[in-house]
Amino acid sequence: MPRKRNEIISAVEIGTRSVKVLIAEILDGNQLNVIGYGEASSHKVEKGEITNPKIVFEQLGLAVDKAEKMAGLPMEHICLALTGEHIQTVNRQGNTPISGKSVNEDDVVSVTRLGRTTSIPAESELIHTLERFFLLDDSRKVQNPVGMVASRLTVDIHIIYGKRNNIMTSQKLVEDYFSQNLYGHMFSGLCTAYGVMNEDDNEKGALAIDIGAGTTEYTLYHGKTPQHSGIITVGTNQICNDLSLGLKLEYNRCQQLLVKYGTAIGQGDGRARLIEIPGLAGQKDRKIPRSTFEHIIELRLRELFEIIHADLERHDVLNLIGNGLILSGGGSKIPQIKQLAKEVFNTPTRIAKLIEINGDEEVINNPAFVTCGGALKIGQVYYTVDREGRKSAVQEFKSEVKKTWRNIKTAFRW
């Protein structure tokens, strides 16, 4: 007897190292359950940017075939996690006078509309506009101003945008493959945060850092709102490149050695431990100090964390990390990386796993899948909003606001 057909949400992540897809069903109680997943090696993707759509199209097909065969269903409501060095973030404000005795929902919609009317480069496209906080009479900071008495309401908005052509390249590739429009596209750093943060993280403040092969994205939440995010074009590929240059080894060999011997904190024991490397094509065998190998990795990872630390300090949000760090992505699997991050940020650190999603442990407990899983969760929010229906332009805009304000805060019991 065939099982009941539930609504389907799907996600695609085109990363530098691999293409990942997830298929989930929405169960009773609004619970997401992953029923299919697939992964294929990326080719012609550099630092999150597609350099050859034809090749990536083929790799996407391999991942989709695996997921759809496992699920026994086609992908629907497809959400795309966006990455790449073209993505930028900025904070802007909008304000409006309050005509009534207290702030109502229409005032929130009005001031948010003004805040979203911001100037970005002509060749760019908005990806997200997310409310950080509201100010009452330019002085009182609140997260939800509705019902509070004030003469003036200001909203501070976190804006994420990217180059239009880069976004359209990724979007068109996925839409061409499925012969349907995307249900939504989201910044992968935001997806990661939604995938791994619990209610306590979201309220007290937590920083999600996703270390991929070509890029590292990070997003800081506090008070149930995003306070800052960013992207750095440094990942595990850069570590391998450093090893290749520093040790004069083939890049592919360095990738293998990173998996086998890599650690984020090196031991300064000179030549006490050696890595034996068989020679290739008639070359002599080599022995390199493992301490040197480890030192190169630590230098790059420490620098990466220090860049993020400095950025958060520059934007005056470093003190908002009340609940610590959450590390994800393939880079989070490097031994002792949790200890290194804790040392740099002086805060508790844990390795990520998906929360509030059921399914195969190969996905749920794999830090490399949390971005794709987070895209599923945001897609579920969009689906919840769409079910409410839209009858007018004002209601439509309110629904858009709810996607990043009311519903996006409460959909996962945040």
Could you outline the blueprint of secondary structure elements for this entry?
Blueprint: E1 7-14, E2 18-26, E3 32-41, E4 45-46, E5 49-50, H1 53-71, E6 78-82, E7 88-97, H2 105-116, E8 124-136, E9 140-142, E10 152-163, H3 164-178, E11 184-187, H4 188-196, H5 199-204, E12 206-211, E13 216-222, E14 225-232, H6 236-247, H7 251-261, E15 274-277, E16 286-289, H8 290-314, E17 325-328, H9 337-345, E18 349-351, E19 357-358, H10 361-364, H11 370-387, H12 393-404, H13 406-410
Parallel strand pairs: 1-6, 3-19, 6-11, 12-17, 17-18
Antiparallel strand pairs: 1-2, 2-3, 4-5, 7-10, 8-9, 8-10, 12-13, 13-14, 15-16
Helix pairs in contact: 1-3, 4-11, 6-7, 6-8, 8-9, 11-12
Question: What is the number of E strands?
Answer: 19
Strand content: 25-35%
Helical residues, percent: 25-40%
Rg over CA atoms, rounded to whole Å, is 23 Å
Which architecture of the largest domain would the CATH scheme give at its second level?
2-Layer Sandwich
Mean pLDDT across all amino acids: 90
CATH class of the largest domain: Alpha Beta
- In DSSP terms, counting alpha (H) and pi (I) runs of 4 or more, how many helices? 13
CATH topology of the largest domain: Nucleotidyltransferase, domain 5
Largest sheet, order of strands side by side? 11-6-1-2-3-19
For this structure, what is the CATH homologous superfamily of the largest domain? ATPase, nucleotide binding domain
How far the N terminus sits from the C terminus, by CA atoms, comes to 37 Å
Main sheet attributes: strand count, strand direction, barrel closure: 6 strands, mixed
Outline, from the CA principal axes? globular
Question: How many structurally independent domains?
Answer: 3
Contiguous runs where pLDDT drops below 50 for at least 5 residues: 390-394, 402-414
Q: Which structural class should the secondary elements be placed in? A: alpha/beta
